[in-house]
């Protein structure tokens, strides 16, 4: 139990997102009257409900931590007298017509924003946070961990890297593509689902279907992921849970060689990918797969993944002599940046290669 934590840097906030299951962020400003009015309510909730490594309450001054506020789309409409503040992007007419959007409260679960409250609404804030505390208690009682729980939280197959968060949800579903998938199994979207894989004992897949992907004519897969914002990608987690020998007539393989390409305008064809040097090539060995969750962590050359607006993940081959490759989940970790104007992606030249 304690007072809200004043955030003084992006690194401090990212570390907190990694170390606490739930984080509540109060985006406020010194000049904001409603922020001061609701502060005692927020501080009381923090004193009653905060728990080390479970629920953390934070306060973020939008003028002092502009990069954090911008990353999560926090802006403010203030009075005309305050309109010289750089946070005001509306015209004078818009400022008069719109109610205050400060403070803004954002609830994070395992590093991902899950709920937003704009404005000083004590009743709604109290309702959302107490519901959050109830969910946290249920998760704690059931032994919730990185492997997931029954509370509906986003499943992650391994620990979140320190200082970063799960940014998988930043993908643009409209442009998502997956080449050479077997239509009897899941789609590209299946790979980015937040749910725990059914192979780990979570029941049937969505709508009774298979909640994993298998390749079709050979072991290769090509996944194209466009993003809604420009990302800094730190690492990937790939989960593959093929059945044991004898459980299936044709046991699929786990991925072995993976090539990564950034900032392409479209999904790469297999022949096209063979002619382009990857930004990074990865070889996964048997020991890289966690025996409990079937997840392998891929650390990226961070300097080459600083401004990523699309990612091609090419599974070149599988680990074994089979004809098919299986992937259950993919998670992306790093930092989300400014929202990108959706439209045609600009193709970056081959200077992105190795």
From TrEMBL:
Output this protein's name. Thioredoxin
Looking at the UniProt entry, the stretches that span the membrane are: none
| Low complexity: bias regions | 136-153
Query: Where in the numbering of this chain does the Thioredoxin domain appear?
Result: 1-134
* Keyword Transferase part of the UniProt annotation: no
Q: Which UniProt keywords apply?
A: Disulfide bond
Q: Which organism is it from?
A: Aspergillus mulundensis
On the tree of life, the source organism's domain of life is Eukaryota
Q: Name one GO cellular component term.
A: cytoplasm
């Amino acid at each position: 139990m304690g007072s809200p934590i004043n955030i003084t840097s992006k690194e401090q906030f990212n570390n907190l997102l990694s170390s606490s299951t739930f984080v509540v962020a109060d985006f406020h400003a010194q000049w904001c009257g409603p922020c001061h009015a609701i502060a005692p309510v927020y501080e009381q909730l923090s004193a009653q409900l905060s728990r080390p490594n479970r629920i953390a309450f934070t306060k973020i001054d939008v003028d002092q931590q502009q990069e954090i506020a911008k990353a999560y789309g926090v802006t403010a409409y203030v009075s005309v007298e305050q309109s010289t503040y750089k946070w005001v992007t509306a015209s004078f007419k818009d400022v008069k017509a719109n109610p205050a959007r400060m403070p803004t409260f954002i609830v994070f679960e395992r590093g991902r924003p899950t709920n937003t409250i704009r404005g000083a609404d004590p009743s709604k804030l109290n309702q959302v946070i107490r519901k959050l505390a109830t969910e946290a208690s249920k998760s704690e009682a059931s032994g919730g961990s990185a492997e997931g729980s029954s509370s509906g939280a986003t499943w992650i197959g391994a620990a979140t890297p320190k200082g970063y968060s799960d940014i998988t949800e930043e993908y643009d579903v409209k442009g998502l593509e997956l080449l050479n998938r077997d239509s009897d199994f899941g789609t590209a979207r299946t790979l980015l689902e937040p749910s725990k894989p059914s192979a780990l004992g979570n029941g049937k897949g969505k709508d009774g279907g298979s909640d994993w992907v298998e390749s079709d004519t050979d072991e290769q897969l090509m996944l194209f992921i466009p993003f809604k914002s420009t990302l800094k990608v730190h690492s990937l987690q790939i989960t593959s849970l093929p059945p044991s020998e004898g459980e299936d007539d044709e046991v699929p393989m786990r991925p072995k060689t993976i090539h990564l390409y950034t900032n392409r305008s479209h999904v790469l064809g297999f022949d096209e990918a063979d002619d382009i040097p990857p930004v990074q090539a990865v070889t996964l060995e048997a020991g890289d797969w966690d025996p409990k969750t079937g997840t392998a962590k891929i650390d990226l050359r961070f300097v080459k993944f600083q401004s990523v607006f699309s990612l091609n993940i090419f599974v070149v081959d599988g680990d074994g002599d089979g004809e098919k490759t299986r992937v259950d989940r993919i998670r992306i970790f790093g930092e989300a940046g400014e929202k990108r104007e959706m439209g045609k992606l600009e193709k970056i030249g081959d200077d992105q290669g190795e």
